[in-house]
Amino acid sequence: MNVRVALSGRIRLLGMVALAALLSSALAGCKTTGSSDTTGSISSPAAPRSDADWRRDSEALGERFRANPRDADNAIRYAQALRATDQRAQAAAVLETAALHNPDNRALLGAYGRALADVGNFKQALEVLERAHSPDQPDWRVLSVQGAVLDQMGRHEDAQRYYATALKIVPDEPSVLSNLGLSYALAKDLVRAEMTLRRAISRPQADARVRQNLALVVGLQGRFAEAETIARADLPPEIASANVTYLRQMLAQQNQLQIPTARPGRS
Question: For residue 149, how far is the Cα from the chain centroid?
C-alpha cells in the first residue's frame, strides 16, 4: 500500500499519540495528565491523576503563586497543573512571570520553553530552551525538547541532529528514540521510523506511549491488524480497534483525494 498522508495535519486517534501533536516524552503528543517538569525539562509521566486532583492542586498552587511569583519551584508545579487541565496559555504566562524573576533558573527555563511550544510559540521556545542548558553542560531532556520543537516547525533534519546529540549522552533512551522515530515519520520515512521505534520499545524503560507511537507508524504503512495487536498491549480492545478503524478510514480518504480526476475527452 502506498501511504501518502499529510503527517503534520489530521491524525487524531482516541488513545494513540498523534504525529501532529508531537512528541512523546518531550512534548508528549496525546494529552497526558501525568507529565511533569523536572530539572531542565520534562520527565516521564508519573501515575495518572484525575482532573479533579489537578484542579485542586491548581487552586492551592495558584494561591501560593499570587502570594510569591518569585518561587520558581511552585511556579513550575502550578504550570504543570494548569497544563494538565488544558490551561496551556495560562501556564505559559505563569512561567513567563516566574522567569522574569529567575532569569538563570534552568529548570524554570526548560519548563517555560516547553510551555511556549505548547501554545505554538516555537521561535521563542527555541530561544528560551537555548538558555536552559549550555554546550559544556548539555541536558539531554532539553535537547529532546528542542528537537520536538524543530519537528513542529517542519525542520526535521535539524530536529534529528538534536536527538542524535541527546542519544550520545543517553544511548538508547526510549523517549528520545521515540521522538526520533516520529521525526522520521513526519519526514515520511516510515521504514526508518518503524526501525527506530522498535529499538525504543526493546528498552526496559519504554512506556505505553512508545508502543502506541509504533502502532501508529505500523498502521500508517497499511498493516492494520499488526497495529491493532501492538495497541492492545496498553489499550482496551475496543479502543485499540476504534483507533485502527479511524486510521484506516483516514488513509482511505487521503488516498481517494489523491486520485486524479479524469478529464473529459474532446469530441
Answer: 9
